[in-house]
Input
Amino acid sequence: MGRRRKKKQYLEIIETEIESLDYQCRGVSHVNDKAVFIDGALTDEKVSFKYFSKYKNYDEAVVEEVIEASKYRVEPKCAHFMMCGGCSLQHMETQYQIESKQAQLLEQFSQIGKVQPAEVLAPLTGNSWSYRRKARLGVRYVHKKEKVLVGFREKRNSFIAELDQCEILHPMVGENLKSLAELIGRLSVYNQIPQIEVAVADNRTDLIFRVLVELNDADKQIMRDYMVETSFNILIQEAGPDSIYFLGDQDDYLNYVIPEYDVMVYFKAQDFTQVNVEMNQQMVRQAMQLLDPQKDEVILDLFCGLGNFTMPIARFAKSVVGVEGDQSLIDRAQKNAEMNGLSNINYFVDDLFSETLNSQWFNQRYDKVLLDPPRSGAIQWVSQLNKNKPRRIVYVSCNPSTLARDADVLVNEKGYKLISAGVMDMFPHTTHVESMALFEI
Output
């Protein structure tokens, strides 16, 4: 077995002025006519930096000292900010964060999509701390420290950051990282647990412990006692997703409410849900305003998941068709519709990344469409949109570059107009950009 290649160390410290921010909100400068992307730097600052990676056309670096600070620079709230990779923008004033993301969205529309929205929507913002309800936390026993660490990975490496608490996680979890580490340290399998998946719902908090070996009875009892002490609900995953089981008596669904539309969404800890409940409510409200469903309309919801958008739409439309590629999500979406008393929804399981969409749902005529694809976007559906075009499309995106790519096709090939677009602060203090766009024909 070959030795792991050591990462090259760069010792030189260089001063420079920051010209702008890139799409990851890193400071951009040029040294000897070569672009340098600098973590922790802001536009118009003078900083000293140290390289950590060099490439043919650009280099990457990190701030050593801020010599002249931007007016948008603030003191990070988290004591672990410079080390932990859970978030990367705490040094940037929150309003400036969202303005930078809005500018990034518009730049992507211009450069990739060759289009601009007729109206720029005001950013949706909310509480920027203690907002994160879904997360995957790394776990590692560190021999040199003789202790277990639970948290996010450090910046630019695979080590687990040693955290006292996390300011962006929901307090139920963010204030219990040391407690979770101590729990694992008491188990016989303390070095066989690589991950904890977190799901904080309205009714309880579930933690899925990924365990590489089978738990013995003593370990199970230690975890059950911990559940009583903390009110956490612990699940165990010893193999694939189908192996997940409840350690305690709680085996019912988690849930969250979208009160404005009288909808309760039931889900399991391993299901995809939005990490930020407050922003999800604002997002659904804005999507509903843009879509404006009417009692005589048939509406399509693509990448529908558990029905986060489908069910609010169904409260106002004649009927809704929801399509998703995951059978287990569709099963729960159907259950959600039943539990919420909605009988005007038809769900289909289909591969929305297929180059030849020709299913029953695809060949129907729809008045309007809402789509909320993953980071890869929805180019397959957009490219095949030739007949029976819906007159209105609301596109919810978690990747501005693929949204801009799909907007190029919708506007410049399919004849739609980009009416409006704007960003949503779903992930404060991170470089993640969530946005929404309205297209009409």
Remarks:
- The longest strand covers residues 58-68.
- DSSP finds nine helices and 22 strands in the chain.
- The radius of gyration is 24 Å.
